[in-house]
Description:
Elements: H1 7-14, H2 19-53, H3 67-95, H4 97-116, H5 123-155, H6 161-193, H7 211-220, H8 223-228, H9 230-235, H10 240-246, H11 250-260, H12 286-315, H13 317-323, H14 335-368, H15 370-389, H16 392-396, H17 401-416, H18 419-425, H19 433-461, H20 479-497, H21 509-513, H22 515-544
GO biological process, one term: phosphate ion transport
Membrane topology: Multi-pass membrane protein
Keywords: Membrane, Phosphate transport, Symport, Transmembrane, Transmembrane helix, Transport
Amino acid sequence: xxxxxxxxxxxxxxxxxxxxxxxxxxxxxxxxxxxxxxxxxxxxxxxxxxxxxxxxxxxxxxxxxxxxxxxxxxxxxxxxxxxxxxxxxxxxxxxxxxxxxxxxxxxxxxxxxxxxxxxxxxxxxxxxxxxxxxxxxxxxxxxxxxxxxxxxxxxxxxxxxxxxxxxxxxxxxxxxxxxxxxxxxxxxxxxxxxxxxxxxxxxxxxxxxxxxxxxxxxxxxxxxxxxxxxxxxxxxxxxxxxxxxxxxxxxxxxxxxxxxxxxxxxxxxxxxxxxxxxxxxxxxxxxxxxxxxxxxxxxxxxxxxxxxxxxxxxxxxxxxxxxxxxxxxxxxxxxxxxxxxxxxxxxxxxxxxxxxxxxxxxxxxxxxxxxxxxxxxxxxxxxxxxxxxxxxxxxxxxxxxxxxxxxxxxxxxxxxxxxxxxxxxxxxxxxxxxxxxxxxxxxxxxxxxxxxxxxxxxxxxxxxxxxxxxxxxxxxxxxxxxxxxxxxxxxxxxxxxxxxxxxxxxxxxxxxxxxxxxxxxxxxxxxxxxxxxxxxxxxxxxxxx
Length: 545
């Protein structure tokens, strides 16, 4: 913006790390904690729901969700998330970040509780109600993605901006971990209180009536962390960058920031040519395509292929663990015992692979940079996926399960110390303030489109190639081994598309978005115009003389 650069933005870029930065991380981060908990806890309880509502008398295997029901239950929240990312991302640029932020959290609280209260006279009725509330839960979660990233990026200084945004996103790891821990506690408590035989001994008695409370309590717990931060969100001021650059109220921006940050702001100097309205390009313009078209292509494609692999691994790890024999045959356990062992396996993966990966990103992103962390993550995800797929038969043999779990955990580690974090961070840094939330929403929605492909596609693709050995109701698939090859190919594509994404380490948001260049171009045009007018005036004066 040259000489007319807003003084409040300079103050934010160079501000020292303060208490409110950490407060903002907690407020935004608890939203992501809730997002991850709500999105992934459903994968832990689907086998239990299948036993409760889809038992088949005389069957040698416990009840399971039919293919269409399982696809809907696992994937409907992603459909809502995709819609919410586009809608709230756009709304955040139109109405402001703060006004929309509380709406998303309120929706998440209500729908988390409602999901656990799903009702109906038949299994189909219960599943329909559950899917309805999970769609709207996902809609609220979707809004949290662009708003949390944008708010944190606009509060942070340029030196530690990546660390702050990564810390918000890292709360997702704790959400996944907490989902496993809560499931362990609830299922373990009910298992010890209500004893039951294995399915092979007593098919009906293996699922106690009280098991219906278990999955409901687990889903409803998602409302607790969201409710804890609702009041804090209501008290957050609008970000200074939105107020100054989009709402064009520099004085208000200075006032808002002075309330929460100790920065040297002078209201009289906080002007951004308030008398002058510069011509600004929109999303669907040639100027945007020229400046940011490849950037948006890079952020959308990398997030899309990442989430195909990432959500396939997360949602169906229980099926992969069963396939390699880490979780015993379902018929040898009662319903709550099976849930407990699924949660234990998921918690171990989250604790050893998922959570550490997020915090490695927090520690190193402003040292290594976004680009190289993303390249490294995609590369090692490809390597470890191939390491699982090529000798797949070896991993299924007795005694080799620990090696499989270590390799599998490393793919999660490099997903989170890699593209799962950076694809969230970069779109909040490289687009103009007036389009930042919208472009982040578009990028995140592309990711959720990948999650939908992963959640629906992997469910069918991972089925045994022999239809007789596939799960009840499913057609023959390509098998877990070939599915892992497909996921490795997705990671390799992500590596290539990362080349379209710019490095934003150490640069201000205005430098990355090109808003300084826009202002300089306007200044040059004004100078040229003025020089032209002066020349005309002199010519007229000489003629008159």
